[in-house]
Amino acid sequence: FASGSRSSKTFKPKKNIPEGSHQYELLKHAEATLGSGNLRQAVMLPEGEDLNEWIAVNTVDFFNQINMLYGTITEFCTEASCPVMSAGPRYEYHWADGTNIKKPIKCSAPKYIDYLMTWVQDQLDDETLFPSKIGVPFPKNFMSVAKTILKRLFRVYAHIYHQHFDSVMRLQEEAHLNTSFKHFIFFVQEFNLIDRRELAPLQELIEKLGSKDR
After folding, report:
1. Does the domain made of 20-209 have the CATH classification 1.25.40.890?
2. Which SMART domains does the record match to this protein (predicted)?
3. Is 159 annotated as a binding residue?
């Protein structure tokens, strides 16, 4: 019972992009190019499109993907199995959002990921940051907010790969996880959205995924 109540809490509702909106069209374009199998091409800014809008649509999409992927392994990611939020023995993350929690706190992985996903969802739902209406401009700080969101979402991938990959394999989700992560990495590389140092916990994997596409 306990794990059921917790996993539903961590599993955030999917963030939907309104049908008929320009962002919805962009998402459809992204899905179509992804279908072609060329991920390097799929992440490129479509001709004539606004960079902020492209980054916004993809950020929402990655949030939904990571949300789903983590949702499949929540029963294995518990206070007992993951008392700290880590990505292997060398990397540990402490949570702070700058508003409610200003000083970074040490917490379990499920707690950290719950904080993180709730925080991301609040940003995505904020119309002043992620405007969904045509013609509403993106704020000046949009890019720095998007970079922070993506940097934090990366940590969920890093935790899944380092601490739960055996569970992912047992669930036969590894192809799904790898494709999602590869798409994410190619995207952040294309627009230089995450500092290289932040990617260190999965550097070898990133190089391996990238080398297959050269």
Report:
1. no
2. Mob1_phocein
3. yes
